[in-house]
């Protein structure tokens, strides 16, 4: 089921298998359109269960039809930990997808995990500035921010996206700051992390936000429902995703969408 809300398009899936196929088709469509338009595709991944959901891309038909040599991979966030560590977002993506498809190794732009979080954020921002200069990543039409073809995010149970956690100063970064860091994430185990800022995320051409399972139902409701605003409602980071010119699509399963659906139903009765 697809709904067009003020907060973007919401796709609610009957099963994880259906969600995986829809997400793979969506990524394939954006990749094809980007390659057609500018000869390459710049995608930013994050972590969490999202990565196992996109593993379908390593299967046929996607593995054979995708123009992997045109893909450039970045991370919207990662933890400052060895790339071999089970909690590294890079490792997750490598195990689930990157090692299984013919992506050119020099197109994979992971973070430097051997320096402090502050230095890693600075280095990663420099790398993105170089990628904009080299036109691997486009520039936004409305600001100097990078304009990624696609950014994939997953909502955490506390409503965080990438490594933008509730009530942290990173949420206030302005356009000049593209990559920031946190040494105190509310998600345990607490790792030092680096993350894209909201201006960078909101400058993307396409943003997909994924959430599955009933533990995410409250966060999804707070992030996407029209009635989740006002003084009593916490403003979760996922609610701050507002593409400036791009398109936002939510990929949810039924349990994650349950509170959002209930609020849509009750509001339609009030009309
Ligand atoms: O810490 C993180 O968590 C979120 C969501 O993860 P999940 O465990 O709730 O599936 C993820 O999107 C983010 O990139 C990651 O660093």
Keywords:
single chain; 271 residues; alpha/beta; Rossmann fold; 7-stranded mixed beta sheet; 8 helices
Order of helices and strands: EEHEHHEEHHEEEEEHEHEH
Biggest pleated sheet: 7 strands, mixed
- Based on CA atoms alone, the radius of gyration comes out at 18 Å
Low-confidence runs: none
Write out the strand line-up for the largest beta sheet, numbering strands in chain order: 1-2-12-11-8-3-4
**Overall mean pLDDT score?**
93
Helix/sheet category: alpha/beta
Percent range of helical residues: 25-40%
Give the CA-CA distance, first to last residue.
21 Å
* CATH level-two architecture: 3-Layer(aba) Sandwich
Q: What is the strand content?
A: 15-25%
Bound molecule kinds, no repeats:
the ligand O=C1O[C@H](COP(=O)(O)O)[C@@H](O)[C@H](O)[C@H]1O
CATH topology: Rossmann fold
Q: How many separate domains make up the residues?
A: 1
Q: Number of helical runs?
A: 8
Shape: globular
What's the number of extended β-strand segments? Answer: 12
Question: What is the CATH domain class?
Answer: Alpha Beta
Oligomerization status of the protein chains: single chain
GO biological process, one term: carbohydrate metabolic process
Domain Glucosamine/galactosamine-6-phosphate isomerase: 16-250
Enzyme class: hydrolase
EC number: 3.1.1.31
């Amino acid at each position: 089921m697809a709904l067009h809300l003020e907060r973007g398009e919401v796709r609610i899936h009957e099963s994880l298998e259906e969600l995986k196929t829809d997400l793979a088709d969506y990524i394939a469509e954006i990749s094809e359109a980007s390659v057609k338009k500018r000869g390459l595709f710049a995608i930013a991944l994050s972590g969490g269960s999202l990565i196992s959901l996109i593993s379908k891309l390593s299967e046929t038909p996607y593995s054979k039809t995708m123009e992997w040599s045109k893909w450039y991979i970045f991370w919207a966030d990662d933890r400052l930990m060895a790339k071999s560590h089970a909690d590294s977002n890079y490792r997750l993506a490598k195990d689930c997808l990157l090692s299984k498809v013919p992506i050119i190794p020099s197109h994979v732009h992971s973070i430097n995990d051997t320096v402090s979080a502050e230095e890693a954020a600075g280095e990663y921002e420099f790398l993105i500035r170089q990628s904009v200069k080299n036109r691997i990543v486009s520039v936004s039409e409305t600001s100097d921010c990078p304009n990624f073809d696609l950014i994939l995010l997953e909502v955490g149970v506390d409503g965080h996206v990438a490594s933008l956690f509730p009530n942290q100063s990173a949420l206030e970064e302005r356009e000049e700051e593209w990559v920031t860091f946190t040494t105190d994430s509310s998600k345990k185990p607490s790792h030092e992390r680096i993350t894209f800022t909201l201006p960078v995320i909101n400058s993307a051409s396409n943003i997909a936000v994924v959430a599955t399972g009933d533990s995410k139902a409250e966060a999804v409701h707070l992030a996407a429902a029209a009635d989740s605003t006002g003084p009593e409602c916490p403003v979760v980071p996922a609610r701050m995703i507002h593409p400036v010119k791009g398109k936002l699509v939510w990929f949810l399963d039924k349990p994650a969408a349950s509170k959002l659906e209930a609020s849509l139903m009750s509001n339609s009765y009030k009309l």
